[in-house]
Amino acid sequence: MRLLLVADTHVPLRAKRLPDELLREVERADVVLHAGDWVDVATLDLLEARARRLIGVFGNNDGPGLRARLPEVARARLGGLRFGVVHETGPARGREERCAARHPGLDVLVFGHSHIPWDTSAGGLRLLNPGSPTDRRRQPYRTYMTCVVGEGTLRDLVLHRLPQR
After folding, report:
1. For residue 68, how many other CB atoms are within 10 A of its CB?
2. What does the DSSP assignment read for 28-74?
3. Which of 2, 9, 106, 145 could form a disulfide with 84, with the two C-beta atoms 3.0–4.6 Å apart?
4. How many domains does the chain fold into?
């Protein structure tokens, strides 16, 4: 099962639209996980129309229209792994222990908010932040992640760098 991990799209505030490369990945993925800060309901509509399956949450920049349609935390079993999706996890320091305590029973937690790619593991919980495909902030690239899951294993995790604009 091919997964696309994305967060912090911030359309139309940080970009007028999603990058074409990301939209092609949406159509290749079996499941798209979006960790919040969509900003625009139209982006949710677009991904719902194009994705085979979409799992998303709202972020701190998402207004009432998005909050009415998305949960704060989502959970799903994918490829034999227990996934969670959330926007904010707090400061980097102590993140692994804090997330393991707040989200027991998960194998993988996908999060956003910082726009900083992240991949760590602690206590059986893998934490993944795909960065942002539209707003690199202080990072060298705009990014998203893909991976493959199956038989209880996550493999072929790739952090994709989008070209500079």
Report:
1. 9
2. H-SEEEE-S----HHHHHHHHHH-SSEEE---TT--HHHHTTS-SEE
3. 106
4. 1
What is residue 165's predicted lDDT score, i.e. its pLDDT? 63
How many angstroms separate the Cα of 143 from the Cα of each of 28, 51, 159?
Answer: 17, 19, 7
Range of the domain at 72: 2-162
Phi, psi of 147 (to 5 degrees): -160, 170
Cβ–Cβ < 8 Å for 82, 69: no
Residues 6+ apart with CB under 8 A from 89: 95, 98, 99, 109, 111, 113, 127
First to last CA, the chain: 31
For 64-96, the pLDDT digits (tens) are: 999 999 999 999 999 999 999 999 999 999 999
Q: Give the CATH number for residue 23.
A: 3.60.21.10
| Nearest by Cα to 34 from 66, 53, 7, 9 | 7
